[in-house]
Model the fold of this input.
Amino acid sequence: MDSFTQIVLGIAVAEFCAGKQLKNKTFLYGAILGTLPDLDVLVGQFLNPVDAVLIHRGISHSLFLFVLVSPFFGWLISKIEKEKISFFTATNMAFWGLFTHVLLDMFTSWGTQILWPLEQRFALKTIFVIDPLYTIPLLISLIYLWKTKRTILRYKYIKRGLLISSSYLLLSCFIKLYALSQFEKALKNQEIQYSEIIVKPTAFNLILWNANVATDDNYLLSDYSLFDTQATSFTAYSKNKTLEKQLKGNSDFEKLKQASEGWYIISQKDQSLYFNDLRFGLLNDNPTNPQFAFSYQFVQNNSELKAIEVPKSKRDGKRLLQKIFTRLKGN
Done:
């Protein structure tokens, strides 16, 4: 999730675990704990773009690491706060502050290597990385929290905020299952044979959902709104296996394949090859000249091809949001 939401969640969890002992200092410790796992982004600044993608939400989001470092943070906080909080309570706060960050990230499309050093990423794909309807209940509870010193009221506010936001996450799972069933029904009705399907929400909402469907030669892309009244249609994009052969053995290509979990298309434009990550959708609806939200161009660097991320403009983002807003109202 976005950094602001993770900070808000971190504060809420710190308050739930140690609000009685630390009062409003939970805002400081919660914000730090909620931010720490995402510091892998800073490490990525010193790596090439492809390696930065691979390490994101890797070891910094692992349960193994949290079990190791939580006692250290617990000891440090208990020393700073002296008689206010015990080592056990501080360690408990540190662990849950870090671990809930990863649990929330698991609901997004990118997922996390929560069981690092295992390479598998776990991604439920039920919520977009920014969703105000998840964040706002927690934020409101923190505003009320800041204004009172009464322990009973503070606990009541934070429990209510966590309950509402967690219920929203649970709701996202049920809505995803319903959207998945609609896509599967459409595929069956159209007698389309496929090997795999992934479904995920579009930006900022749980109303409009995207589907990626893998067949032998193509990927089929589609969307479904809860307000749709007409049949769901699919647009085919060739896997371009011939173009892919040109990148066989390229180190950046192999890393991007791993990062995309196999959901990618190789395209060519102006003699350059592009790696397009399918998991995050399209910026336009033109099958002959598609523009994907995340693309990497292969450029010649000395004697080898290196992948660089294709920059996105504010105009791209504005166009995508307009497209989503229009489409979520139904077909």
User: Anything to note?
Assistant: DSSP finds eleven helices and eight strands in the chain. The longest strand covers residues 272-282. Residues 151-189 form the longest helix (39 residues). The mean pLDDT is 91.
